[in-house]
Design a protein that fits this description.
- The chain is of the alpha/beta class and 269 residues long.
- It is built from 10 helices and 7 strands.
- The strands form 2 sheets. A 4-stranded mixed β-sheet has the order 2-3-5-4.
- β2 and β3 form a beta hairpin.
- The longest helix has 36 residues.
Length: 269
């Protein structure tokens, strides 16, 4: 879309020929290029900001983990922290990170359940998938339905990890883990990573353990409508045949848009 329209939107004025007006149903005012260009520029800026913030969080998290690393054994790293957390982190070579706080408040059996839970994420490559999904979400703010898709995926993966964790243990151990974590002040930013104390998934997981309640995916109607409208606009802009010619008069530049294929020999970009 940018390749097709970016150079056109740089002009101060855009004139719409009759064929283009018919295609767009209504006439478009002059200087609409500045308005559309401004909107696209704002979207690009917001996208870059979200992407930079997401990357910054991941880099900051990695630096914090390395700085407070106490010991490591195979795939498990122990981090000195007053916050209770256990999660998988890393793209090329992910590891399981446990805080000294969570080790302190859990029993041996409960800690084994936590490690089994995170081991499932590690073997299933959930860390890489969720990291890429977080980056994709940052790059496409005009498709908010992706946020719902990622949330549903996270919940499903956490439920599967819970089932794996209790397959060789008593489900009460996992319940005790979740209860203890709920009593703690969970403020750690996991940057979209699979974590035992993921606040967004705790309610669904507890309902599954206590009431064996099945998880039903939820999508925001607002996000669906916005994503559908944006997708329709993108498809329309991509498919519509556009012919342009540049005008240079009175010291200003303008462009004429037309969709008449018969006039392609006259209108050139």
């Amino acid at each position: 879309t940018l390749n097709k329209y970016f150079s056109i939107l740089l002009h101060q004025t855009i004139y719409i020929c009759q064929e283009m007006a018919k295609t767009l149903v209504s006439s478009l005012p002059n200087n609409i290029g500045l308005v559309v260009f401004g909107a696209l520029f704002l979207i690009i800026v917001l996208t870059i900001i979200k992407l930079v913030v997401a990357i910054f969080k991941m880099v900051s998290l990695k630096m914090m983990l390395n700085k407070n690393l106490i010991s490591s054994s195979n795939e498990i790293y122990i981090v000195n922290s007053t916050k209770p957390f256990a999660f998988c982190f890393g793209i090329r070579n992910p590891k399981i990170y446990l805080s000294t706080k969570i080790i302190k408040i859990l029993t041996k059996k409960e800690l084994e359940v936590v490690i089994a839970h995170e081991s499932y994420h590690l073997k299933s490559h959930d860390t890489q998938v969720l990291t890429l999904a977080t980056i994709l979400e940052s790059l496409t703010p005009y498709f908010p339905v992706l946020t719902d898709l990622i949330r549903n995926y996270k919940i499903e993966r956490e439920l599967l990890a819970d089932q794996f964790a209790i397959s060789n243990s008593n489900h009460k151990n996992l319940m005790n883990v979740l209860k203890k974590l709920l009593k703690q002040n969970i403020e750690f930013d996991y940057a979209g990573l699979p974590a035992i104390a993921d606040v967004d998934t705790l309610e669904v997981r507890i309902n599954r353990l206590i009431n064996n309640k099945k998880f039903s995916k939820k999508y925001s109607l607002r996000n669906i409508v916005i994503s559908s409208v944006c997708l329709s606009i993108f498809i329309f802009l991509i498919l519509i045949p556009v012919k342009t010619t540049e005008l240079h008069a009175t010291g200003s530049d303008a462009v004429i848009l037309c969709v008449d294929k018969k006039m392609s020999s006259y209108y050139t970009l």
